[in-house]
Specification:
The protein is α/β, with parallel strands linked by helices. The chain folds into 2 domains: 282 residues, Rossmann fold, CATH 3.40.50; 196 residues, N-(1-d-carboxylethyl)-l-norvaline Dehydrogenase, domain 2. The strands form 3 sheets. The chain has a 5-stranded parallel sheet, sandwiched between helices. It is globular. Keywords: NAD, Oxidoreductase. Pfam families: Mannitol_dh, Mannitol_dh_C. This is Mannitol dehydrogenase family protein.
């Protein structure tokens, strides 16, 4: 968000507790008394997705009378969201858009906003508050600070900082571990940690990473009463997995202007989204939880099959559309998906990925992909391909590489899956050439830029990228995967997606 978006002077009043009462009747507003809401959830990573997804579900619960589940939002990096929402008393507009309609709803479930770098003590106070019974996270894949092998990146400077300064943390790992240590010392039961990011087995993955961090912390505090927090986290703290699904494009200034006109009040940061919304959660909440299922959340014993279907069919095709769309000159998902070649490719990609899903889990991939096709065609969202393209090195392992490996192991076709990896490499190389410099970003950008600047032969390039990103590390089929990706990269280098598609008969 640009620096002037929260400081613009207009003749329109700002959305707030006062002005919300005067909004047009067509706009849904909180039907509950926000002054009676008790904070029960701390959310780390208050971006647009959280505000379009979990915060909306919690808003429904508050409206049903479950007043002890207000959200304290925490930004781990930027103050932008706090600066936008605090003058609005935490209120914001959710714009649910389809190709022909737009429905506006004001969400009131976020009752406080904190910025961790400004006041880590306030964040720890919220986490240690006995009323806090759930901590949710949407911090993006890269913020889990995993090394190439999947374990904790103990050499990361922020991890080193948090180990050396446990009472002044920077990372989610540091905040969660310090808060759980303080709660244990005070005799306060632990909160449940609910990961909502696109990680495989996200609850188990975060659990493992946090135990690794806490073990390093225990080793560094050998004479402290805090020793043993790793064992406490390993055996006393619940980490249910979840699967989240809702498309949330970035908000533009045109969106802000349109929403302000509809409201008759200025909203510094409304959120755009689609009508579809899904949340599947493992039901493991020892300290209690909202009655989410009353509002469409699916509570299950095992979220794994749902997660795999979403990662491999929605997220995998989203990455394909992003990279092939960028290489084909398409700025948004709906325009890329309307390209007959890309649409045909996505159908074939789904056909490759579907056999990797379990057959006995009650999934319906055909219905799911039909729904995805409708969602990707939504012209009202204007979901930017460059937004989806960010952080490919962190996203592709679970979205594409896992399916490709399973296809190799099963001896089934996988030529479309491997083109997605090649398209990511080609799109990274195109920045500063056919794509704008910094058009999208990746945690490995410095190393990727240096590597791709060498213009090595395709096979050497793909091998080096796999080494750098840790793709298929130590897997028996790794070399085969590299060779298949390299063939596509040769085609992309020669004539872009046109030749790559032609080689697939598209």
């Amino acid at each position: 968000m640009s620096s002037d978006q929260t400081s613009r002077t207009t003749t329109t009043e700002r959305l707030s507790t006062k002005t919300v009462r005067a909004l047009p009747a067509s706009i849904a507003t909180p039907s509950y008394d926000r002054s009676r809401i008790v904070p029960g959830i701390v959310h780390l990573g208050v971006g647009a997705f959280h505000r379009a997804h979990q915060a909306a579900y919690v808003d429904d619960c508050l409206a049903a009378g479950e007043t002890d589940w207000g959200i304290t939002g925490v930004s781990l990096r930027s103050a932008d969201t706090r600066d936008a929402l605090t003058p609005q008393d935490g209120l914001y507009t959710l714009a649910i858009r389809s190709s022909g309609t737009e429905k506006l709803q004001v969400i009131g479930s976020i009752t406080a906003m904190l910025v961790a770098p400004e006041d880590p003590g306030a964040v720890l106070a919220a986490l240690t508050d006995p009323r806090t019974r759930i901590v949710t996270l949407t911090i993006t894949e890269k913020a889990y600070l995993r090394a190439a092998g999947g374990g904790l990146d103990a050499a990361h400077p922020d991890i080193a900082h948090d180990l050396a300064n446990p009472q002044m943390p920077k990372t989610a790992h540091g905040f969660l571990t310090e808060a759980l240590a303080r709660r244990r010392a005070a005799g306060t039961p632990p909160f449940t940690v609910l990961c909502c990011d696109n990680l495989p087995a996200n609850g188990a993955t975060l659990h493992r990473l946090l135990v690794e961090f806490a073990q390093l912390r225990d080793a560094g505090l050998a004479q402290s009463s805090d020793v043993g927090i790793a064992d406490h986290i390993a055996h006393q703290v619940a980490f249910p997995s979840s699967m989240v699904d809702r498309i949330v494009p970035a908000t533009t200034d045109a969106d802000r202007a349109r929403i302000a006109e509809e409201l008759g009040a200025e909203d510094a940061w409304p959120v755009m989204t689609e009508p579809f919304c899904q949340w599947v959660v493992e039901d493991n909440f020892p300290a209690g939880r909202p009655d989410w299922e009353q509002f469409g959340v699916t509570m299950v014993r095992d979220v794994g099959p749902f997660e795999d279907m979403k990662l491999r069919l929605l997220n995998g095709s989203h990455s394909a559309i992003a990279y092939l769309g960028l290489l084909s000159g398409h700025a948004t998902v709906d325009r890329a998906f309307a390209d007959p070649a890309i649409r045909q490719f996505v159908d074939a990609l789904w056909a490759e990925a579907i056999p990797t899903l379990p057959e006995d889990a009650g999934l319906d991939p055909s219905a799911y992909t039909a729904e995805l096709a409708e969602r990707f065609s939504n012209t009202a969202l204007a979901h930017r391909t460059a937004q989806i393209a960010n952080d490919g090195s962190q996203k592709l392992p679970q979205r594409i590489v896992a399916s490709a490996i399973e296809c190799l192991e099963a001896g089934t076709e996988l030529v479309h899956l491997t083109l997605v990896v090649a398209a990511w490499i080609a799109a990274c190389a195109a920045r500063g050439k056919t794509l704008p410099e910094g058009h999208f970003t990746d945690p490995l950008d410095a190393a990727l830029t240096a590597l791709l600047g060498e213009q090595l032969p395709a096979n050497e390039t793909v091998t080096a990228v796999f080494d750098l990103a840790g793709f298929a590390r130590d897997h028996a089929e790794r070399q085969t995967l590299i060779e298949l990706v390299a063939v596509h990269l040769v085609h992309l280098r020669r004539d872009g997606p046109t030749l790559a598609f032609a080689a697939l008969g598209i």
